[in-house]
UniProtKB/TrEMBL annotation:
It is a lipid-anchor. PROSITE patterns: PROKAR_LIPOPROTEIN. NCBIfam families: outer_NodT. This is NodT family efflux transporter outer membrane factor (OMF) lipoprotein. Keywords: Lipoprotein, Membrane, Palmitate, Signal, Transmembrane, Transmembrane beta strand. Its main location: membrane. The keyword Glycoprotein does not apply. It holds the Pfam family OEP. SUPFAM superfamilies: Outer membrane efflux proteins (OEP) (SSF56954). It is found in: Cell membrane. InterPro entries: MdtP/NodT-like (IPR010131), OMP_efflux (IPR003423). It comes from Dyadobacter fermentans. Belongs to the outer membrane factor (OMF) (TC 1.B.17) family. The keyword Membrane applies.
Length: 481
């Protein structure tokens, strides 16, 4: 009967704790504002996408493939991302361990001298006069030692799912860290490809500049001869010479750009500065038509979008755990070992001691720390939601921009090809007219300057086409698989 009353009191106290702390939790911030994606990209039909191609298939230049492979092996940012994954994996182990009992070994010794006018002091003094005690059980006086050798255990029972949500959050963040590594891989491949095509474009510019230098040197020699023959003056010689010097300075500017990009590529590949081996002719073929696929496929493939989505889920779990922290926690503590006040009796059978205690504890007063943690978790959850929406919008922006850039640069390239052909014919015509006296040296200078500039512009347009293709490949989540 007494046992039933005690049990009823325990239940009553537990009910009071639940009512005070509020067993009906506030619902976590609902993440209903996830952005709605369009069914298709503007002007695109549902078809296969280049983002599904592996990077070794998409890039068909052997030197570029070798560079990317080296970067994937040696890039320091990628190696740091791998270590972040290992840290996230350790967090999973820690969260899982929090759900299990903690067992520790304990070897301790100490002692205490009780005051003569205390209950313990009087009790110990009086106990030693008992006729029921043998010599081994008599208390040392005045200093009472205490020796313990055994195991102690503590265990929080996850009755509400708080620890389970923390473990779920840790696991989700581990998955997000893997997606972060994949995003670095995608960006690294795109950066290497962009730099490679920029180097090839600069090589083409260098060839164009050197070809024009040779033509301008010939023009300077020609006008000097004509000056000696009285058919030209010193002004024409100086202007053509100045144009030649300007073109030579362009050669050194391009060489400096090549050095800068090569050093950047070497940094990405984890190497010290060295020349970058590359093809003399462009082996990459521009596709006649490019498809971005459907938006849902893009979202499933882009690592940054997947990472943002996993961060969103992790924050949601952490928010739930922060709210469950207001509920009572069930803790069980226990010990098993040898306990005695005489060292020579520590390992005797009579020194065996054990204990087990379970209880509910709940925060009642000054819960500001828990409330602050709850508010932080709610804000972090909303931030993760907005970050996810931003990543989706950014993905659409990048894909749309790259698609339009491919289309427009193709049109610009066709027109620039025609313009360069016309200007090259104009240079040849101006030379013939100058030699026969029907054109001035100013017309020759203008024609040469125009064709040089437009040949460089045409090279830049072709480069931009390939950069747009690489950017579209990255924007569609290609490269990490």
């Amino acid at each position: 009967m007494k046992r039933n009353k005690k049990f009823a009191y325990v239940l009553l106290f537990a009910s009071i704790l639940l009512s005070v702390t509020g067993c009906k939790l506030t619902q976590p911030v609902e993440q209903r504002a996830q952005i709605k994606t369009p069914a298709t990209f503007a002007g695109q039909a549902d078809s296969a996408t280049i983002g599904a191609l592996q990077w070794k298939t998409f890039f068909n230049d052997r030197h570029l493939v070798s560079l990317i492979d080296t970067a994937l092996q040696n890039n320091l940012d990628l190696k740091m991302a791998v270590q972040r994954i290992e840290m996230a994996r350790s967090n999973i182990m820690a969260a899982h361990g929090a759900m299990l009992p903690v067992v520790t070994g304990d070897v301790s010794g100490g002692g205490r001298k009780f005051g003569d006018y205390t209950m313990d002091g009087v009790g110990n003094y009086d106990t030693n006069f008992s006729q029921n005690l043998d010599n081994d059980r008599r208390l040392p006086d005045p200093f009472l030692p205490d020796y313990f050798l055994g195991l102690r255990s503590s265990w929080e029972i996850d009755i509400w799912g708080k620890l389970k949500n923390q473990k779920k959050a840790a696991y989700t963040r581990f998955l997000a860290s893997e997606k972060g590594r994949q995003a670095i891989v995608t960006g690294l491949i795109a950066e290497i490809a962009r730099s490679y095509y920029e180097l090839m474009a600069l090589d083409t510019e260098l060839d164009i500049i050197r070809k024009n230098i040779a033509l301008q040197e010939s023009a300077v020699e020609t006008i000097k001869i004509q000056k000696e023959a009285g058919r030209a003056n010193e002004l024409g010689v100086r202007q053509l010479t100045a144009q030649l010097l300007n073109t030579r300075s362009l050669e050194f500017e391009v060489q400096q750009k090549i050095i800068e990009i090569e050093n950047n590529v070497n940094l990405l590949t984890g190497r010290f500065p060295q020349p970058i081996t590359r093809s003399t002719t462009l082996e990459q073929v521009m596709p006649q038509s490019v498809s971005a696929g459907i938006p849902v496929q893009m979202l499933r493939r882009r690592p940054d979008v997947q990472q943002a989505q996993l961060d969103l889920l992790a924050n949601y779990s952490e928010q739930q755990a922060a709210q469950l922290a207001f509920l009572p926690s069930l803790n069980i503590t226990a010990f098993l070992g040898f306990n005695a006040f005489k060292s020579n009796l520590l390992f005797s059978s009579g020194s065996l001691a054990y204990s087990a205690l379970g209880g509910l504890t709940a925060p009642l007063v000054n819960r500001k720390a828990l409330k602050a943690n709850q508010k932080r978790a709610e804000a972090a959850s909303l931030e993760a939601l907005y970050a996810y929406n931003k990543s989706v919008l950014n993905g659409f922006r990048e894909v749309s921009t790259s698609l339009k850039k491919l289309e427009n640069t193709r049109q610009i390239g066709d027109l620039k090809n025609q313009e360069v052909e016309v200007l090259q014919q104009a240079v040849a015509t101006s030379k013939d007219l100058f030699l026969t006296g029907y054109a001035s040296y100013l017309e020759v200078i203008t024609a040469q300057r125009s064709v040089l500039q437009e040949e460089l512009n045409l090279t830049n347009v072709k480069k931009e086409q390939f950069l747009a293709l690489v950017e579209l490949y990255r924007a569609l989540g290609g490269g990490w698989e």
